[in-house]
Amino acid sequence: MDIEEIKKLMEMMAERGVVELEIKNASGEIRLVRENHRVAHQQPTVVVAAPQAHMAPPFPAPPIANAPVAVAVPPVSEPDASLQRGAAIPSPMVGTFYRAPKPDAKPYVDIGSVVEVGEVVCIVEAMKMMNEIQSEIRGRVIKIMAENGKPVEYGQPLFLLEPL
Fold first, then answer.
1. Most buried among 28, 41, 154, 158, using CB within 10 Å?
2. Which residue has better confidence, 149 or 68?
3. Fold assignment, 85-163
4. What is the pTM (predicted TM-score) of this model?
């Protein structure tokens, strides 16, 4: 993404009142956050990260005209007691959760599996793109919190790990 595209995104955010916008694509990722969202034309802060070679390319960015105004994560009404003793691997996007690379293949991980940082634990399919989800911590899988082949939401816990 070049500077002109970033400037256009910033202008559209200000015009439409968008507080936060995050885009991930094959060329990298960008996250724009307006510091003071009450001021209509405040310029957002820009955070740009280099692409990660070990990740499958995520889905293409949506057209600017359809950029979401806000993303709300629903509150958890009753906290799961097992969450207090482990660390969750959340879904980085909305999509369909798959435990294995193919329907007839062995799952990436099972309960009791030890995963390393960067190890693929599942796939989340979004817009026909298969996105490998990697663990950001080393730990033992103590709970699988999503059902194979079912939709998952952004931020939804997929696995619960006991940190090692």
1. 158
2. 149
3. OB fold (Dihydrolipoamide Acetyltransferase, E2P) (2.40.50)
4. 0.50
